[in-house]
Amino acid sequence: MTIHDFFEAEYSDSVNQQNIWAVLNAITKAAVSVSDDLKKAALLENVLGSQGGQNVQGEDQQKLDVIADLAFIEAFKSCGAVTGIGSEENEAFVSFDTETSKKADYVVLFDPLDGSSNIDVNVSVGTIFSIYKRLSISGESTDLGDFLQVGSKQSIAGYVLYGTSTMLVLSWGEGVHGFTLDPDTNLFILSHRNMKMPLSSRLYSMNEGNIKECEPGVAEYIAYCQSQENDFNGPYSGRYIGSLVADFHRSLIKGGIYIYPNVPAAPKGRLRLLYECNPLAFIAEQAGGMATTGRKRILEIEPEALHERAPLFIGSKNMVEKAMSFIS
To answer: Is residue 89 in a domain?
Structure first.
């Protein structure tokens, strides 16, 4: 079953079905394009490597960051159902000010290529996205308030994983479903219906190079994971890819916890609330998992800025709750 057929059969809001499908269809088209670019990147000139500058986050911008960003922006602009976008790669939101776009119902926030520093070494990367119903007046230009919505208000959240296969995982609040790209037809086919995250596992994911910079509770939880006195009576396995989408996808399939805490150099954390934390938190909860800052539910945070950051503890429910118990 294609993603279009599945969406048409399962999405319950018939009034908004056509418009929201236009947004999803734009995502699938851009994802196919980016997937093709990634497959051929090593064979093309001037595609791999750094762009030579930094994005608004202060991170080295890869050439494929820019290529992916432009592909998704163009897809959203031309679909007719998106009034504006916010991207991790752009300092300000972009308003599509055509007459059609001003009347459109949705805004999209996205990270066009999460983990892009791993491209040169052929490691999985991804696209993360959130779709929100606009709050501003239809017929006028979108404004910042459309983008600064609490995560629980997402209409659809999802990600595309570009790995051994290209997979689109999403939720519109009625479970989590996965679709795998058929390379022969360039169609996303339902491959994982109603995905559920295991309540616990022996897998944890964290950049432990910063462990001495973390607050004591985080270090104590990692020590618990490595001890003989945990719930599995033996050390967990550490798994850290460095691509958030890939680390999260493993937890979704096999269970586990991903931790990116705040440290003195980044007191508010490093991950972007609107482009990374919110959409993955929405998916985690819909799959039976949990996502917090270590103290507060991610989907309850009222954002104050487009590029706001947050700490993230996300994954299997029992593991996130246990980690939180170590943090005062």
So the answer is: yes
Q: Which H or E element spans position 126?
A: strand 125-133
198 belongs to a structural domain:
no
DSSP state of 306: T
For position 304, what pLDDT does the model report? 97
Verify that 180 and 68 share a domain, yes or no.
yes
> What pLDDT, on the 0 to 100 scale, is given for residue 57?
55
Whether residue 185 is found in the same domain as residue 207:
no
Nearest to 295 by CA among 255, 325, 263, 251: 325
Same domain for 33 and 120, yes or no, is yes
Same domain, 181 and 90: yes
Same domain, 41 and 159: yes
Q: φ, ψ for residue 298 (rounded to 5)?
A: -60, -45
Q: Does one domain contain both 209 and 94?
A: no
Write out the residue range of the structural domain in which residue 129 sits.
3-192
Q: What are phi and psi of 24, to 5 degrees?
A: -65, -40
Band of pLDDT at residue 42, cut at 50, 70 and 90: confident
In the chain, the number of structural domains is 2
89-129 residue pLDDT tens: 999 999 998 999 999 999 999 999 999 888 888 899 999 99
Closest residue by Cα to residue 88 from 269, 320, 307, 284: 307
**Cα–Cα distance, 308 to 287 (Å, whole number):** 25
Which H or E run contains 309? strand 309-310
Instruction: Give the predicted TM-score (pTM) of the model.
Output: 0.94
- Structure tokens belonging to residue 85: 């976008």
Cα distances (Å, whole numbers) of residue 62 to 67, 90, 148, 270, 281: 9, 14, 27, 18, 26
